[in-house]
Automatic annotation (TrEMBL):
Residue stretches of biased makeup (Basic and acidic residues): 85-96
Organism: Panicum hallii var. hallii
Protein origin, superkingdom: Eukaryota
Protein name: Uncharacterized protein
UniProt-annotated stretches for the region Disordered: 73-96
Compositional bias segments (type: Acidic residues): 73-84
Amino acid sequence: MKEIIMPQSEVDYVLSYELESCGPETEAWMEAFHPDLHALGENEDRRMLAHQEGFKRQIASKGYVAMMVEVADDDEEQDEDEDYILDHETLEEPRN
């Protein structure tokens, strides 16, 4: 795992997210006819607001937003690939 700095465009997108009220009539209609969609929207709102809080904490403490990503070990990948590469001239496995 490696910590990377999140691109500013993604940080801006999350920080600019706002709850949008669609009005009581539309809200009632969605709950009545599309309860799954309504619940999905509420879950997305909670998720984005939680991300905003986490981003704000990171910015306050570090000055940037970071995330952990999984990074393959280049040496390990190269070794694994070599096991499967054949010399096209002789059709033999490479010698190490």
